[in-house]
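#onboarding

Welcome to the new folks! Below is a worked example of what a typical request in this channel looks like: someone posts a single protein sequence, and someone else replies with the predicted structure as tokens. Don't worry about understanding the tokens yet, we'll cover that in week two.

Example request:
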Amino acid sequence: MRIRFYRPLFLAVAIIGMLLALSLQMKTGSHRGTMSFFFWGYWLDTLKHLGGFILIGFAYFIGVFRGKEISFAAYARTIWPVMAFGALTEIVQIWIPTRSCNLFDLLANTLGPLLGYLIILVLTPKQSPQNT
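Example response:
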């Protein structure tokens, strides 16, 4: 079955993921400013950001990509809204009194969608050159 049939489902997963990320990152409560840089929970939270944005980037790309050949340029042109969303959700936390902006979360939110591209490369079958 072709992936075209599942594109709306992938787009829905990406949108739900973005809404979930927004709600989790904007909730009030304790923030990581009190956590030590060497504490495992600090890095576990960053890994959650990375994993979430890898999934969102992967699903968004599959949901909106309409081209024939998957290249990094095509991926970069398509995925920038997810990267901008990830950066903005972290930067906005500067102005939320109970939250704090974290550089590693910012990197995870913006690099996660790029790592989703690696998953797409692994899952995409390679085109063999045809001799004419």
